[in-house]
Amino acid sequence: MIAIALVLITYLVIANHHVYAPILTNALIVVNVRIVGCIIYFMKTKQIDAIALITLVIVFVMCLVWYTPAVKKTLLYIG
């Protein structure tokens, strides 16, 4: 899951940075950095439960922000 999230978010940033609002692009970059941090932390501590939970929360929050149709002022529409 962590590897898929990292690849998918990296692809979204690279392929669509010119289309997305700058705040969304920056948010995706921050998420990628945090996921890489989680991978490094896992390699040092081997605490998969904590890392999986942190990554799940990060991806879940980004999905909520990205796909909230009721709110027109989400990150997707700013710009």
Helix coverage percent: over 70%
Count all strands and give the number: 0
Mean pLDDT: 76
- How many individual helices? 3
Ranges where pLDDT stays below 50 over 5 or more residues in a row are none
Question: Could you give a short account of the major beta sheet?
Answer: none
Distance between the termini: 30 Å
Strand content: under 5%
Question: How does this model look, in words?
Answer:
The protein has 79 residues and is mainly α. 73% of the residues lie in helices and 0% in strands. The protein has three helices and no strands. It has helices at residues 2-16, 22-45, 48-66. Helix 1 (2-16) packs antiparallel against helix 2 and helix 2 packs antiparallel against helix 3. The longest helix has 24 residues, at 22-45. It is elongated, with a radius of gyration of 13 Å. The termini are far apart. The mean pLDDT is 76.
Index terms:
79 residues, mainly alpha, 3 helices
What's this model, at a glance?
With 79 residues, the protein is mainly alpha-helical. It has three helices and no strands. It has helices at residues 2-16, 22-45, 48-66.
Chart the SSEs and their pairings.
Elements: H1 2-16, H2 22-45, H3 48-66
Helix pairs in contact: 1-2, 2-3
